[in-house]
Amino acid sequence: MAPTPTPTKNILILGASYAGVSTAHYLLKHAIPKLPDPESYKIVLVSPSTEILCRPACPRPMISDDLLPQDKLFVSIPEVFKKYSEENFRFEHATALELDHAGRKVLVKSTDQVEKTIEYHALVIATGASTPSPLLGLNSGADTLRAEWVEFRTEMSRAKSIVIAGGGPAGIETAGELGEHLNGTSGWFCGKLENPKVQITVVTSSSQILPGLRSSIAKKAEGLLARMGVVVVKGTKVVDVQPPSEEKDTTAITLSDGSVLEADIYIPAVGTTPNTSFIDKSLLIADGRVNVTNALRVEGAGERVYAVGDVASNARPAVHAILSAVPVLCANVKRDLLLASGVDVSGADRLFIEDTRETQLVPIGRRWGVGAAMGWQIPSFMVWLIKGRDYWLWTTGGLWSGSQWDKES
Ligand SMILES: Cc1cc2nc3c(=O)[nH]c(=O)nc-3n(C[C@H](O)[C@H](O)[C@H](O)COP(=O)(O)OP(=O)(O)OC[C@H]3O[C@@H](n4cnc5c(N)ncnc54)[C@H](O)[C@@H]3O)c2cc1C
Description:
It is a single chain. The chain contains nine helices and 21 strands. By secondary structure, it is an alpha/beta fold. A hairpin with a 4-residue loop joins strand 14 and strand 15. The two termini are 43 Å apart. Bound molecules: flavin-adenine dinucleotide (FAD). The site of flavin-adenine dinucleotide has 38 residues, from helix 1, strand 2, strand 5, helix 5 and helix 7. This is FAD/NAD(P)-binding domain-containing protein. InterPro entries: FAD/NAD-bd_sf, FAD/NAD-binding_dom.
């Protein structure tokens, strides 16, 4: 009599960006092959987009396709996982609608509107966070993002005024890219650019832009922006936004000091919202992120449920935090899977400890930038070399292909 095949145990990963894609590669390389009966485990990677995006780059290619190589910016997810066995990997072009953590299953909806339930043996939530502006990330599929960029470029070609809400890196990088592209820069000894072609205003409620960096670095960024005709309004909130109407073509942006700015384009770049609407509130902290332990397990969700990346409460939203969290998460997933399969595993959990030192690189236009790494200020040229030159595209090849995770660490 033929032996009964072992039922497949799904390791379900929701979200396919920095956190989800890295976790999938890492587990396929270092966890599944070490389990008894590896053919019985399947990574199921769920994403509403069939392409991965180098998200930090968005402020530049939203202006034109010619500014960065498109084949490196968007990469096919099924293509980079083709090298693994079909027994161990499946891509689901779908969105998670509802997590039933008591029943250990997730309801997903495919892009052709078909709903189905996927049961899991282990679950990794890596659904990240959405930006209020649709221009700055994969809030849904890559085609939608590209269509948003096309529409933006048409508006940009006619714009005389742009208002950006938010003085964090996303707002400042967007202001710098638009400033240099639309206005150029003043000469080195002229300081502020007088009479820019397009009025670009950044509004921030903080007392400085780039609150993640010391104030002297933030001042440098403000000086560079001024050279591109960007004006910064600090200590002021956007309290109301009225979109264009039949009577007028501009957006009216009311500020907390009572003044009203009229703009041809308004870009909200204030904060992000964790993509957790499909998760029971009892598993979330007050700001909407998933409540994880230092071992990256989700508190109260049952066995073998984890969260990583911008969606999780363990760290501030940054790629470098994800890259240090992935080996910790995967070591704990592997250990839990071995234990669940009856293998006696010694040793303790690996714990994630966030590096909270001042670390942020912010290109200002295509030639300059400001920033710090691990508490050390980085000169403009180095910011350009590391990030501003191609907005991290030099790093994503290894991440998306998985070669970054060839060694278990
Ligand atoms: C403009 C900008 C510039 C940035 N610059 C930097 C930088 O220079 N350095 C740095 O370290 N960080 C930077 N960041 C932050 C960085 O991009 C994030 O930390 C990183 O993208 C987070 O990765 P993630 O995998 O956690 O989630 P995300 O990148 O947010 O991706 C989540 C994925 O999950 C999918 N998803 C959402 N909901 C569901 C669902 N219900 N079901 C299934 N899938 C779902 C989404 O479509 C998306 O593909 C920047 C962010 C922005 C917006």
